[in-house]
Amino acid sequence: MMKAGRGAALIAAVAASALALTGCGGGDAESDPNVLKLWHYESPDSAMGVAWNAAIKEFEKTHPGVKVEFEEKGFEQIQKTASMVLNSDDAPDIMEYNKGSATAGKLSSQGLLADMTAEVKERGWDKMISPNVAVTAKYDGEGTMGGDKWFGIPNYAEYVMVYYNKELFEKHGVEVPTTMTEFTEALDKFVAEGVTPLTNAGAEYMAQQYVYQLALSKADRNWISNYQRYTGPVNFTDDAWTHGATTFQQWVEKGYVDKNTVGQKAEEAGVAFMKGEYPMMFSGSWWFGRVNAESKFDWGTFVWPEAKFTLGSSGNLWVVPEGSENKDLAYDFINITLQKNIQNQLGNAGGIPIAADPSAITDEKSKKLIADFNELTKGDKLAYYPDWPVPGFYDALVAQFQKVMNGEDPKESLAPLQTTYEDGLPK
């Protein structure tokens, strides 16, 4: 999952601190056995924030005398500094981290994450986590996703969908589309009415997810596996990638997407949708709780029409730094987040739990969210995320697809990705 960064202003300070400490090595400072240092980047009103706050209370209740020292970090803050911080005395005992070969896989190959394989089997987590969700939690010796060792534990799942403003759809006489033809007709109808239909963030993950989703319409499972898991050759100017970038550029030209959003952040895009400024937002289930809490209009969701594949996977991972001296406490906390009472809260708050009691999910929108995800997994339609394969690819995709939005020939924008991708592959 890629999310809007929060606390981005702290990145420079954290990076400087981490650089100063890199040579120290994790675990050199004396650890307090009565404190569990926890980092994550979920807002308090998100589904995960709600569930994990409940898990913190449960942990402290069941561990008398132990205090959870929680710090909310920005997604990009952790993304950019994790390798340095985890090799320093400032490392937490447990933290949320992005899944994929370029992130959790990279840290595992550097020896910075604890191998939890034995713990997984002893606690039965492998029985709670379905195989298709577990792919992102397991890595091989080179850090490639889908390996045989557990270096992270997900306790929720996620996927990207279309959020829509029912009131704007009704006002402009637009029906919820079920085919791509109907979707295009809906986009045209909004534009004809003087309304930009899709919110967007060119400076972060939203633009690249549009391109990837459009490319997936021309892809198959082998194409995805080659790209994400290095099982075959990848060509960034093939029919799929070219279709994705070219179609997205056409959408900008037609006014489906506002060209002025080329420098916009995902947080701004999400807030604009929640204020009712756009009829639709194509983004992840991580927004679900906030949209539910902050939107003042009636809204709903639908899966990308006629999607052979769509973006999605397990949620982000709980990882435990190899240098942590409180690993047992960290494992206890993970275990609590997988218990049914916490999983049920996550589901009713708008998350996609992986071990909840289905009958305990009472919110109708949440039921649909979970049902749509289950249909995607049954059909083997989850295609992960475009930035995952190699380190630094997120920034490369942002830069190149901003060029697409600015009118550069799509193939010229795609071509440099080949070198970045190949340079980042495991050697």
From TrEMBL:
Record bears the keyword Signal: yes
Alphabetized SUPFAM superfamilies for the sequence: Periplasmic binding protein-like II (SSF53850)
Pfam families attached to this UniProt entry: SBP_bac_1 (PF01547)
UniProt entry keywords in alphabetical sequence: Signal
Record InterPro entries: Bact_solute-bd_prot1 (IPR050490), SBP (IPR006059)
Domain of life where this protein originates: Bacteria
UniProt protein name: Raffinose/stachyose/melibiose transport system substrate-binding protein
Species, as recorded: Actinomadura algeriensis
PROSITE patterns per record: PROKAR_LIPOPROTEIN
Cleavable signal peptide: 1-20
